[in-house]
Amino acid sequence: MRINLPAAETLTPTLQAIDGRLSADAVVIAKAMDMLGDFAVNLTIAAIIFVVTLVAAKWASSATRKILSRTRSVQRDPTVLGFLVQIVRVIVILIGMIAVLQRLGVQTTSIIAVLGGASLAVGLALQGTLSNVAAGVMLLILRPYRVGDVIDLNGVVGSVQKLTLFTTEMSNGNNNKIIVPNSKVLADVIINLSGQRTRRVEVKFTVGYGEDLNRVRQVLEDCAKAHFRVLKDPEVWTGVTALLDSSVQVTLHCWVRSEDHFQTTADLTQSGKEALDKAEIEIPFPHQVSLNYGQVGVLRTDSETAAPQKD
């Protein structure tokens, strides 16, 4: 048996190269498996941290609510309570998210660098949201209204239920939930209908031109003074406020507590009308007369009276 030495010498380096490659591939695979295992462990720990963060945020907000509820300033003004509780919840969630990202290998310095570089784009994209947050802080500082106050925002009337970082939640008389962005609230005129302890009731009546206006004023004044919700100070006021086309307008002013304003206005409107009827004082209202076309006394235009032209 003969052995070809040149062929054997050529085959040996080839086998060694294959063996080296297989060894290198085995090392790469081993490292990949280690990295995959580490990533799986880190991902599991990150998920646990995320769940713990949500639980901690809920617990922290609940604890903050209980602690702040015992302070006198918050008891008098519940507007601050919901706002601060939400801030605590957001802070805890942000801390937890940073911990999750660090566990996944994302460095905090990298996050800050990325946020710093993209701050302009993020600011432009979220300018509406950020303006709502800034407006919410200003509303909390300026206190134009509090939880429970009845306010008028550009014609939308409702009772304030909650002030959050982004919105103001209200409920109207029909128990409809109204959500207004804080930036819009701060930009519009805010009318706090319950911001004062007392409010003035204004009811307008119209009577005929032939009536005794002093007698009309006295009837309305006596009607208001007889109402148990009307305050004695300031005194009831009545006066002629307008001369209309077919009637004279007489206005009644009286003062009540803010919470009695709506019901007292309705009561005085009804009782004032009944008192005027009882005193046989005329309350004029529009009359419509139906006339047939061509009836005597009805004027026609030239086009209507013109004879038809022949072709």
Could you characterize what this model shows?
This protein is an alpha+beta fold. It has three domains: 13-117, Helix Hairpins, CATH 1.10.287; 136-192, Roll (SH3 type barrels); 198-278, Alpha-Beta Plaits (2-Layer Sandwich), CATH 3.30.70. Helices cover 54% and strands 17% of the residues. It is built from ten helices and eight strands. Strand 7 and strand 8 form a beta hairpin.
Number of helices: 10
What is the C-alpha radius of gyration, as a whole number of Å?
40 Å
CATH fold-level name of the largest domain: Helix Hairpins
Cα separation of the termini: 135 Å
Number of E-state strands:
8
**SS strand fraction:** 15-25%
H and E order: HHHHHHEEEEHEEHEEHH
The level of helicity is: 40-55%
CATH architecture grouping of the largest domain: Orthogonal Bundle
Strand order of the largest sheet: 4-3-2-1-5
How does the overall form come out from the CA principal axes?
elongated
> Overall pLDDT, averaged?
79
Count of structural domains = 3
Q: Biggest β-sheet, characterized?
A: 5 strands, antiparallel
CATH C-level name of the largest domain:
Mainly Alpha
Low-confidence stretches: 298-311
Domain Mechanosensitive ion channel MscS: 129-194
Organism: Brevundimonas terrae
Protein name: Small-conductance mechanosensitive channel
Subcellular location: Cell inner membrane; Cell membrane
